[in-house]
Design brief:
The structure is a homotetramer of 345-residue chains. By secondary structure, the first copy, chain A, is an alpha/beta fold. Chain A has 14 helices and 13 strands. Chain A has two domains: 126 residues, NAD(P)-binding Rossmann-like Domain (Rossmann fold, 3-Layer(aba) Sandwich), CATH 3.40.50.720; 160 residues, Dihydrodipicolinate Reductase, domain 2, CATH 3.30.360. Chain A has a seven-stranded mixed sheet.
Chain lengths: 345, 345, 345, 345
Amino acid sequence: MIRAAIVGANGYTGFELMKLIYGHPGLTLTSAASRSNAGSKISDLYPALGFAYGNMTFTEPDVDTIAKNADVVFTALPHAASAEIGGKFYDKGVKVIDLSADFRYTDIGLYENTYKVTHPRPDLNKEAVYGLCEINRDKIKKAAVIGNPGCYTTCSILPLYPLIKSGVIQDKGIIIDAASGITGAGRKADVAYNFCESDGNYKAYGVTTHRHATEIEEKLTFGDERISVSFTPHLLPVKRGILATVYANTASGATASDIDKAYSLYKDEKFAVATGEGVLPELKWVVQSNVCAFGYKLDAKNGRIIIVSAIDNLLKGASGQAVQNCNIMFGLPETDGLPVIGTHL
Amino acid sequence: MIRAAIVGANGYTGFELMKLIYGHPGLTLTSAASRSNAGSKISDLYPALGFAYGNMTFTEPDVDTIAKNADVVFTALPHAASAEIGGKFYDKGVKVIDLSADFRYTDIGLYENTYKVTHPRPDLNKEAVYGLCEINRDKIKKAAVIGNPGCYTTCSILPLYPLIKSGVIQDKGIIIDAASGITGAGRKADVAYNFCESDGNYKAYGVTTHRHATEIEEKLTFGDERISVSFTPHLLPVKRGILATVYANTASGATASDIDKAYSLYKDEKFAVATGEGVLPELKWVVQSNVCAFGYKLDAKNGRIIIVSAIDNLLKGASGQAVQNCNIMFGLPETDGLPVIGTHL
Amino acid sequence: MIRAAIVGANGYTGFELMKLIYGHPGLTLTSAASRSNAGSKISDLYPALGFAYGNMTFTEPDVDTIAKNADVVFTALPHAASAEIGGKFYDKGVKVIDLSADFRYTDIGLYENTYKVTHPRPDLNKEAVYGLCEINRDKIKKAAVIGNPGCYTTCSILPLYPLIKSGVIQDKGIIIDAASGITGAGRKADVAYNFCESDGNYKAYGVTTHRHATEIEEKLTFGDERISVSFTPHLLPVKRGILATVYANTASGATASDIDKAYSLYKDEKFAVATGEGVLPELKWVVQSNVCAFGYKLDAKNGRIIIVSAIDNLLKGASGQAVQNCNIMFGLPETDGLPVIGTHL
Amino acid sequence: MIRAAIVGANGYTGFELMKLIYGHPGLTLTSAASRSNAGSKISDLYPALGFAYGNMTFTEPDVDTIAKNADVVFTALPHAASAEIGGKFYDKGVKVIDLSADFRYTDIGLYENTYKVTHPRPDLNKEAVYGLCEINRDKIKKAAVIGNPGCYTTCSILPLYPLIKSGVIQDKGIIIDAASGITGAGRKADVAYNFCESDGNYKAYGVTTHRHATEIEEKLTFGDERISVSFTPHLLPVKRGILATVYANTASGATASDIDKAYSLYKDEKFAVATGEGVLPELKWVVQSNVCAFGYKLDAKNGRIIIVSAIDNLLKGASGQAVQNCNIMFGLPETDGLPVIGTHL
């Protein structure tokens, strides 16, 4: 059994990791650390976990103690704090899967500009692998540090990567209009996320300024100049899931069969599924699963393709992909412990 | 035009009062006071109000200033604070409609035991009228201070009062199993009320300890000894509305026609509607209206009546009834400014 | 009092019309016709209306009977059927406000292509006025037949019209990415709209094929050649409201002050509100009100403007605008009977 | 691998069974039969299942064909039809787990009175075991036919059984006030269950007439005379889960420790969890898990106990318990394939 620890276990990604690890045949949870909840029972915060973990408590995020009983640590702290403690685990030989943005960028300047912090471990950033499993699987196998991708970015990059790379769409003029469930905002006391303020509501936010835009732009740039996308996130009155509607200009003469050919990259993938022309995934197809599904429609009149891509933001968009990365790093079957079928209901 | 002021205008009952007053042909809003929001625009908190009130701001809760331009003040502060400031307005000749529990109890000891505070104005409490409009209309006409009833209590007392009073049900063994929308908890930052923690959830709370029980017990006692009810509130994943399912033992031989006869008390009422045997109101019949509707089913096998009663907790259960009280006090048509038709959708 | 009748009163737009008319100081409901519900009580279908209309029943859609007691008829039937019966009312001198698409298009061919029907009254179509109140007010005053605009179209045209007309944005390359509440699908038995299939879900539909696209294109064409927009509707898990996120290419050198100047067209409007740069309306600002509110963000990096526009699909997007048209046609105050403040909660 | 077939696979219990079987280490799905959907792909109805089952189709409910490849069949058809086809499988030596009410009652007369049908296989009913796992485990091990308990009944019986049996509560005067998610109504086209009619709503239904009452009464009768309960179901605006609030009169002198002692019956159970005094489960503790959790509060003033019990209606209340029964019948680990941790979010 691979011994897994979580630092920052009290948040929603921590909840999902604890749940996934409990059901995983090859992983066992050795520590669930949370500074703010240290000493209290996991079941006080998440009674549902109590039926599995009984009286287990959150611990202090003490690196020495945790590292002794861990082969891998999932770090889920705020930006900069996450890389700092993650780096200490790395220094002790523990593999690190970081769910913050700290190890996602190749260009540290872009990261620092985007997140307005100084990167605490530029040395480690060089070694870190961007954990988009279907694209970087070979590198992930050998990685010691993973920058686990963002939720909007996973949902956007998976469908766009093969199309831009193969040239069937243009990399100029891309618009990503996306909508996320409220778990994307994390577990925090804020009137704006109260049921009474959110139910029945829908809104755009972070228009032209959301930080996931630069991560998308870096990962989708194959030429010399970084591409520029318009990224508009919205907040849905649902708990989970992201649906991205992507508008791109097709290359001259590009057909559905060209698109499908580009998507054959994913033909053996369980968690990146191209559904084909005219089959547009809905949120409920993927919520509570680790699948990212995407389909498209050609808009010949306007020379565009319209792609609809769906994921569960807490699974393929966060903790599920983190476990998938862990499976790859430790040579476990890649789907172990990961739900293929969502809840639909 | 009657000049109305609100103290504690930033909460949800304040929002509803501002909305009702705007649409009321006989009332005009002269001040909306809120210590925590003084100086900021009403539309910053509630953009929907901005389309009506433009750049109007919240003011400090300064009694002297507010009283100069007010015939009536709606006080909606926490318990004890509300009676204290309400008392000052009374001292200046402004009529007071208090939405806290401060002026609801005849028995000050019961109030103090229930709310764990010392009543700041016992003198005034003697004069205050319990503002359950359909029951106390004549007293309300002449009142200077109104204790506006609680939400659960209005929903429970209206259907039970005529039945207990007329003796068709027993006053022993009553169970009130009720469910409320989340606006009942007010506008506050608390993870427990976050969309992600509330949507899809349902729970009991305050079992055997909820404070509305003593208010119900006092108002439904017609004999020497205060009656005792089991009151179990639940939290619904909806914004608004209360549905109470009430179990009572019928008097020996009591029939549906006895029940209906007792309910003829309300035959001319617009906002207390007995729907008859077998017609059980649903939440959507009344949400966003000022109507309290109740129907019943006789459970002959078990010697019980099962009553289902529904209201909008923020309207007939709070601000709507407050405006209804205001209409009665100032001799305005009782339905003025109050919605008869809810939203259904 | 203006005597109003409704044909097709059983649907959701019918419900809203009955509700608005009840609260309107200048209108009285003389008939609510519905073939499928004729003879049954309005309150059987909509108990909330029963508190206002008592035992009033739906009638057969008999033109002769209804016309005798009506100054205006609101027709809300399926396409083609609506114009046919509307035409008969017109022939009897009753003013017609039609909520279907039948009288919305100037170009009958475009209408017939879009809706795949033959227009039953091309003669009348010539006389009909497109009832977008803020744009066509003067024509509406004199109209006998109104084609009441669609919901997505009202939400899209109001913010785009002044910008295209004044040339601050280009009319080529416009993308409208919109999301609607489920009442937009009407009142029908269909598993796809069941709570269990819709709650927590979000999906795109009608991509590249939705019929409102041609209505938008016709109304926003000022040159010789009809413009072309990409229109992508989505289904939100909410009951009401539409939020449209619109992407357009700005004219070279266009600034926020140019945009604001174009929007000064609406400076005296109560129901078309430009909120300015960086102030992006949310659904809850307008739901249950007749207001269409829109703000924008300039995306200088990509040479675009991103507009967010919100309405209540059943009010400003249907029945509210219909009553607004009625007010204009009969010289009543334009805001009479129409909610300025939405429910927020 | 145990070969499992489903008859009536298109409904929501069928969906859950297909999902559970896919993730079960000891079961494999050999047929998913549905008369109405025969020949169409499972993924057409439930795209989420497509990521697991690919192009597998629903088959006709042909007993001969299905029986050849099945060790066990889950029958989920309407009452009477279910026992009829289930009986044919039994005749061919296939074990039957029936999710309808057909094999739940010992007293066939009570069944026939309750469901208004003639039992098609009274012979088999004698042999059938009531599949409430924690109570009847030993009988289930040897059973060939299981009557899988109802959802409300499982949620009600598990907490009441030990208390009545041990005499710490009285069996007279029990009230069960329960609320269910809308999946309880199944997958059907009915305006009443549309999102727009259900969201934000809450209502009682089947008051004094719901069929689960007689099932509860039979299973909780230990004396000569069948007990009588008041059972009031409500419909919650959530997809899944049942919360039952139960009122019972305590035996004279009964204390919390007496209650806890009675509940020690479940001390080793994973799926029936007594949470103790004052710890009242919420829906989100159990939704998407197979756990039934129940806690209680003593109401000394009124001589009552108030129990709150929660389950997922589709899992422990239907398909989860069916799989648990299957595990017991075939000697598989009882928790195999069954979720202990719900989704919370």
